[in-house]
Amino acid sequence: MQQLQTPLCHYLGIDVPVIAAPVSASPVFVAAVSNAGGLGVLQATWMTAAELRQSINAIRQRTERPFGVNFVLALTAEQKHATLDIALEEGVGIISTFWADPAPVIDRIHDAGAISCHTVGSSAEAKRVVDLGVDVIVAQGFEAGGHVWGEVGTLALTPAVVDAVPGAHVVSAGGIADGRGLAAALALGAGGVWVGTRFLLAEECNIHPEYRDRIIAARETDAMMSEAFDGGWPDAKHRSLVNETLERWIAAGRPASGQRPNEGEVIAFDDSGGPIPRYDLQEPLENMTGNVAAMVLYAGQGVGLTNARLPVAAIIDNMVAEASEIFVRMSAS
Amino acid sequence: MQQLQTPLCHYLGIDVPVIAAPVSASPVFVAAVSNAGGLGVLQATWMTAAELRQSINAIRQRTERPFGVNFVLALTAEQKHATLDIALEEGVGIISTFWADPAPVIDRIHDAGAISCHTVGSSAEAKRVVDLGVDVIVAQGFEAGGHVWGEVGTLALTPAVVDAVPGAHVVSAGGIADGRGLAAALALGAGGVWVGTRFLLAEECNIHPEYRDRIIAARETDAMMSEAFDGGWPDAKHRSLVNETLERWIAAGRPASGQRPNEGEVIAFDDSGGPIPRYDLQEPLENMTGNVAAMVLYAGQGVGLTNARLPVAAIIDNMVAEASEIFVRMSAS
Fold first, then answer.
1. Which UniProt keywords apply (chains A, B) (predicted)?
2. Mean pLDDT for each consecutive 10-residue tract of chain B (333 residues)?
């Protein structure tokens, strides 16, 4: 099998140019991605310092390969990015940031010897943060699931960003779910891809079975952009599957926060029995109970291509093999 | 130079898998695209029967190669698609349709021996129209300029459509402006690309120099989706550059039709002195006068990659050469 090695692979110390978006706070999932030759990224934004240290330790027990840790800067700013300092103290080599200006954290990432990776939605923003010192740019297209920063589609955004930051590492994100998307992103000039929705169906990913079933059944048109699930992260656009909560909100004329149908209602419970209100930002995990299908079901437009539950390693191997085969076939056409 | 021949090329009788979106009603432009080995498509929606016959004749004087004629079905339905019948009478071999159900016209296109090509925005719609008999599906992504039918980005839409209509010809549209976009679309499974914005800078394209200058200066984030320019085609989303008219409309809180700033004001004149009101759907052509920069400046998100004025043939040759080079390089990686 071909490896599709790109300069990004060498830079990050990985075998194949596939990064798993931080769709999970599960060390098992993150380690599985890195063990399969890609880059696993831990979602650490909602962790305490102790939880983060424990999670990093749990990843290291399962892999010796590189992994990253992600922070939503807008949500860690109040704590002055204290957990980011924990990740650096623990020697994490790749720090991924999102949703706010990375200027306040770039120097401390570099001072700790780590690589800085930031997600942007435009070529102007890419140029600005590379000038500030960011090492790896994730160009996130409009197709992406979860929180979406920009409004430009991946196919138009990727080459515009590549042209804006010559010499920088660019990763393409949004709508990429199989080897065709990987090949397309590399053709557009990216050094790798950032994949979220596809990995929700990884066997190692701990989402709730009902969420998984909705992902399997959904088409590319079922992942809708809204600001509806704003509990914990207000005024932030995100893409999620149309479910009971979105249907009611749409039927009510898409009212603003505070005036939405059944606002404040507890609809589910986490594994320690904690209540989860409607419009919260938490997606359903496997040990949650209640009306989990009414919780936010993050998904990108690649959901139309996301149908089979497989081990992480098989998802990555299939993606790389398919992309390699496309390049060989097309170079002969 | 490699030719990147695909089954779509053989089916349409063209040399390279590049179709120029119907950005122009100029026979010179359409013939130039076909003479360069791609497929030129004439925009015929706003023509009388006599104008259409004359235009088809003018194309045939300049090329013996295949070309297409495009109709916005929603706008020709009142005349019971009479000009479509004219195109068929004249022996046009490829009829492209958009914006409404193609069911009423597929049989007459086929009865005349022509190929039916229809633009869709989702995999479900692709399946439906292929079942009705459409031969070539144009999968139009959210990045596209001009009128945009769906909400799914090109990178996620193209493979979803390809999977939905196995065996049908699929063309990828939206955000494709260079060889990187062409290579990406082919990697996604398309048999060819449908390119609009890039061809606005063709030397043979007769847009106004001020419109051309705006295209050259614009970034990928400057092409905005709205329903603002609805004169002649109401309630139809379209993507165009942010200009004076859109800025005023945004500043006024994006009011509905009838309540917009300076509505009804004549801002420019066509080549016979006819008035063009603000919010009209007509883009500025080279022989128009007045405040043409306040007219609608259609552009897709590929506008960030669209910077150089070149002959049609050079645009197409560069695109194909760049895509070929990408496949050869990537197959060796």
1. Flavoprotein, FMN, Monooxygenase, Oxidoreductase
2. 83 98 95 98 97 98 98 94 97 98 97 98 98 98 98 98 97 98 98 98 97 98 97 95 98 94 96 96 97 98 97 98 96 83
**B-chain residues within 8 Å CB-CB of A188?**
180-181, 183-184
- The complex scores an ipTM of 0.97
Among candidate residues B30, B108, B43, the one with its CA nearest the CA of residue B72: B43
Question: A231: burial class by Cβ within 10 Å (0-12, 13-18, 19+)?
Answer: middle
CATH number, span B7-204+311-331: 3.20.20.70
pLDDT of residue A135: 98
The whole-angstrom separation of Cα B139 and Cα B119 is: 6
Report yes or no: A181 at the B interface, CB cutoff 8 Å.
yes
Q: pLDDT tens digits for A110-127?
A: 999 999 999 999 999 999
In chain B, which ranges are E strands? 18-20, 40-43, 67-72, 94-98, 115-120, 136-140, 146-147, 169-173, 192-195, 223-226, 238-241, 266-269, 275-277, 289-290
pLDDT digits (tens, 9 = 90+) for A317-328: 999 999 999 999
Give me A39's structure tokens.
Answer: 């880059």
Gap from A126 CA to chain B (nearest CA, Å): 13
Residue A255 vs residues A130, A229, B255: alpha-carbon distances, Å:
38, 12, 18
Q: CATH 3.20.20.70 residue ranges in chain A?
A: 7-204+311-331
Per-residue CA distances from B26 to A64, B47, B51, B306 (Å): 62, 12, 11, 20
A-B CB pairs within 8 A amount to 172
